[in-house]
Design brief:
With 448 residues, the protein is α/β, with parallel strands linked by helices. It contains 16 helices and 13 strands. The strands form three sheets. The protein has a six-stranded mixed beta sheet with strand order 4-5-13-10-11-12, with helices on both faces. A four-stranded parallel beta sheet has the order 8-7-6-9, sandwiched between helices. Strands 2-1-3 form a three-stranded antiparallel beta sheet. It starts with 5 loop residues before the first strand and ends with a helix.
Length: 448
C-alpha cells in the first residue's frame, strides 16, 4: 500500500502538489479549488481482475477497516492513512433497490434506486465525512494544531460531521440557516454535542461565514470545497457497478445542490475506466429544484454562461443552494459524460416522491427531485425505455417525516396539491364500519 500515492492538485492543472494532510483548500497560484489526484500508473500495476477480486473479498466483511464501503477501496481513497486513525461507522454498502413497480409506471423497467440514505446518520454525507474526519485525526496525531472542524450545512452535512467528530473526540462546529432545516436534521448535531450556530441567512450566507472563520488554520473546513469529502463519495460509483457484477448502467440521475456529488461520482467512474475495471461511462443527469436551479439555467446556454441565483425556499432544502461551490467540477463531468440537467417544480418533486413511496420506497424530497427529473426525461425520450437507470437517493425519508405527513394531510404548501394523498380513515371501533371501509378501499384500488 505504501507504493500508492495521492495528493492535492489544482483542478486547472497548476503544477504545485500538496499533501492531503496540509490545511489548504484553494490553489495558491490561481485561487481555484483543489482536487485529490492519484498515481493511476502505480494503481495499474495491479490488474483490473486483481482489483475486482480484492474489492469483492472485502465487501461487507468485519475485518477493520475494509468492511466499510469506503475503506474497502482505501488504496483509491487515501492509501497511506494509518488504520488506527480511521473513523468509520461501517458506511456504504447500501441497498441498490430494484424499483420495478415504480419504473413500470414511468416507462422504464430496469430502474434502480441507490439508497445512500441507509447510512449511520441517514445520508450519503457519511461517505465523505469518514474520509475527512479520519484525515483530521491523523493530522492531529502528527501534531497539527487543529482545534475543531467546521461546516456550513442545510442539515445532512452537519449531522455527518457531528457524528464522526463525536466518535473521534474532535470538536465540531456547524453553521445552519435558521428555520431552513427539518427538526430531525437539527437534532442530530445537537445530540452529538456539536456547537450549533443558527444564522439569520441562507446556506450561501452560512458558506461565506464558514470560509471566513476557517482562514484560521486551527479550524478545519469540512464542506465539499474540501475535496477529501469527494474521495469518499466517489465510492458510490464503484459500489453500484460492483453491485451490477461490474457492468455499467446507461444512466445515473443525481440530485444537485452544491454539486460535489456529481463531481465525486464522475470521478469514481473515470478511475474505474482508467484502471481498466470498466470499458464505458454512463450518461449522467443532474436534477435541480426549480427554486434553486443555477446549473439548469447554465445548461440551457450550453454551459457558455453560469450565474449564481438567489435560491428560493424549496421542499428540497438540502439543495436550496444558489451559488454552488463545485460548479466548475460538475460542468466538466457533465461534458465528459454527455450529461443533461433537468429541473423539478415543488409540485413535481412532492408528487413524484409520494408516487414512488406508493411502490415501497420512502423518499427524501431531494430524491423526489431526481425522480421527477427522471420521469420528465423518460417522457421526452431522452432516457429510453430499455435503458438501465440508477437514481441516487441521498437521504432517508424519516428525516422529513413532518413534510411527508403535511403532504398527505394537504398542509404542505399553498402551491402543492397532493395528487397521491392517502388520508387516515377515522371511524368508530365497530366491526361493520371497519369492514365497510375495507370494501370501499378495495373498490377505489380496482377503479384506480
Amino acid at each position: 500500500m505504501a507504493s500508492y500515492r495521492a495528493w492535492f492538485q489544482c483542478i486547472n492543472g497548476c503544477e504545485q502538489r500538496f499533501s492531503l494532510f496540509d490545511v489548504i483548500y484553494r490553489c495558491p497560484t490561481c485561487g481555484d479549488l483543489l482536487d485529490v489526484a492519484h498515481d493511476v500508473e502505480a494503481l495499474k500495476d495491479r490488474s483490473a481482475a486483481a482489483w475486482i477480486s480484492l474489492f469483492e473479498e472485502r465487501m461487507r466483511r468485519n475485518t477493520w477497516p475494509h468492511g466499510s464501503g469506503v475503506w474497502g477501496k482505501k488504496e483509491w481513497v487515501i492509501p497511506y492513512l494509518r488504520d488506527e486513525n480511521i473513523v468509520s461507522m461501517y458506511e456504504g454498502g447500501t441497498n441498490l433497490f430494484w424499483a420495478e413497480r415504480y419504473g413500470k409506471q414511468v416507462g422504464v423497467e430496469d430502474l434502480w434506486v441507490k439508497q445512500c440514505g441507509n447510512s449511520h446518520t441517514g445520508s450519503f454525507k457519511d461517505l465523505g465525512m469518514t474520509v475527512l474526519v479520519s484525515a483530521v485525526k491523523q493530522m492531529i496525531a502528527e501534531g497539527r494544531p487543529i482545534q475543531a472542524v467546521a461546516c456550513a450545512s442545510t442539515g445532512d452535512t452537519s449531522a455527518a460531521l457531528a457524528a464522526y467528530c463525536a466518535a473521534a473526540g474532535i470538536p465540531a462546529i456547524v453553521l445552519l440557516p435558521r428555520d431552513k432545516v427539518s427538526p430531525a436534521q437539527l437534532v442530530q448535531p445537537l445530540a452529538n454535542g456539536a456547537l450549533v450556530l443558527s444564522l439569520d441567512t441562507d446556506f450561501d450566507g452560512c458558506m461565506k461565514v464558514v470560509q471566513a472563520i476557517t482562514h484560521d488554520n486551527t479550524i478545519y473546513l469540512a464542506n465539499s470545497m474540501n475535496s477529501l469529502r469527494l474521495e469518499g463519495q466517489k465510492t458510490v460509483a464503484i459500489e453500484l457497478v460492483q453491485q451490477f457484477d461490474w457492468e455499467v448502467p446507461d444512466w445515473v440521475v443525481i440530485p444537485g445542490g452544491n454539486l460535489g456529488n456529481v463531481s465525486a461520482l464522475g470521478k469514481g467512474f473515470l478511475m474505474m475506466r482508467d484502471i481498466g475495471l470498466i470499458q464505458k461511462l454512463p450518461r449522467i443527469a443532474v436534477a435541480q429544484a426549480a427554486h434553486a436551479n443555477p446549473l439548469y439555467l447554465s445548461y440551457q446556454t450550453g454551459f457558455r454562461d453560469f450565474r449564481p441565483v438567489t435560491a428560493r425556499k424549496t421542499l428540497a432544502s438540502a439543495i436550496q443552494i444558489g451559488d454552488p461551490v463545485s460548479v466548475k467540477r460538475a460542468i466538466r463531468i457533465l461534458e465528459r459524460f454527455d450529461g443533461v440537467v433537468e429541473q423539478a417544480s415543488e409540485q413535481e418533486l412532492a408528487d413524484e416522491a409520494a408516487r414512488a413511496d406508493r411502490t415501497g420506497m420512502f423518499n427524501c424530497p431531494h430524491t423526489g427531485v431526481a425522480l421527477a427529473a427522471f420521469a420528465k426525461l423518460v417522457d421526452r425520450g431522452v432516457i429510453s425505455r430499455g435503458d438501465r437507470v440508477v437514481v441516487i437517493s441521498t437521504a432517508h425519508g424519516l428525516k422529513f417525516a413532518e413534510q411527508k405527513a403535511a403532504y398527505h394531510l394537504g398542509r404542505l404548501a399553498p402551491e402543492v396539491q397532493p395528487h397521491h394523498q392517502n388520508l387516515p380513515v377515522e371511524i368508530p371501533a365497530d366491526v361493520a364500519r371497519v369492514q365497510q371501509a375495507i370494501r370501499a378501499h378495495a373498490e377505489r384500488l380496482a377503479n384506480a
